[in-house]
Write a structure and sequence with these properties.
Elements: E1 3-7, E2 13-20, E3 24-29, E4 32-37, E5 47-50, E6 59-62, E7 66-69, E8 72-75, E9 81-82, H1 93-110, H2 131-148, H3 152-159, H4 169-188, H5 195-201, H6 207-217, H7 223-231, H8 240-249, H9 255-267
């Protein structure tokens, strides 16, 4: 095994196996999360990209020299550390919002039918058919009403842990929302009275979504989304913009779409 990329928010400490999937193995510890991932998943604040995933391993230890996996030390090279900070694009707010329109257009065409994209297209509500899905839809619509009326505590309370997926839709939505707030603060010198509420009260309902929300609070993002943001400073998109959006949507089942939903939702409060 070889470390190809090491997330810059990974803390030194001991971690135990939390979940295992085909392309991702998650470990949690008192210092947070470490996710072993294959290259196609991409870099992230807590991602450790390996050329091959370990077949065994219930405990790992991150130390000064590298990562100990089943007695084997995987060394971390300085050049392999991923920089997860949100980028500074050096374009005006008006230019960015105009380009974000194209992201939204592709997002609405390609996003998962049961994602939070219904916030922007009410015709999507017909996709929610089971009793659970209808209940989820009503729950999110109530949260949206609270948000529009300035009840940010109520919005967080209603979306946290709600919805579909290993990382619930509501947690991914919160992560995307906070990411826009920090991105706009960095790029457009914006500030909101609700930033403090989100950064103090927002939290995830499992180690994966908790780590994502904590990363968002620190103004960090994964490689796929950072690549999309950097692409938006280009003056010509061509067909490549669709590939960038599709790359973000490919995260999880509805997770990528729910994250972008939160980012777009926050952008409407500018």
């Amino acid at each position: 095994m070889e470390i190809l990329s090491f997330g810059d928010l990974i803390e030194k400490g001991k971690y135990s196996l939390f979940s295992r999937h085909n392309k991702v193995v998650n470990f949690r510890g008192s210092k947070g999360l470490v996710s072993f991932v294959l290259p196609e998943i991409g870099a992230g604040p807590f991602n450790l990209i390996l050329n091959v995933l370990p077949k065994v391993g219930f405990k790992i230890e991150v130390g000064k020299e590298g990562v100990l996996v089943d007695g084997d030390l995987l060394r971390v090279e300085t050049k392999s550390v991923y920089n997860s900070h949100l980028p500074f694009l050096n374009i005006s707010e008006k230019e960015f919002m105009g380009r974000l329109f194209f992201v939204k257009k592709i997002f609405l065409e390609k996003s998962h039918p049961l994602s939070c994209a219904f916030f922007f297209d009410r015709t999507r509500e017909k996709n929610f058919k089971s009793s659970f899905e209808r209940c989820m839809l009503l729950h999110f619509k109530k949260a949206f009403h609270l948000l529009k009326n300035g009840d940010f505590h109520g919005f967080l309370r209603n979306v946290r842990g709600a919805g579909l997926g290993f990382t619930p839709s509501g947690d991914d939505l919160i992560s995307g929302f906070i990411t826009f707030v920090l991105f706009a603060e960095r790029n457009f010198k914006r500030s909101w009275r609700f930033k403090k509420i989100f950064c103090l009260r927002a939290s995830g309902t499992n180690p994966i979504s908790s780590a994502a929300i904590e990363a968002a609070k620190k103004g960090r993002c994964d490689e796929r989304f950072k690549s999309l943001l950097l692409f938006l400073k280009e003056r010509t998109f061509g067909e490549d913009i669709e590939n960038k959006v599709l790359g973000c949507l490919a995260r999880g089942n509805t997770s990528g779409a729910d994250f972008i939903s939160g980012f777009l939702l926050a952008s409407e409060f500018v």
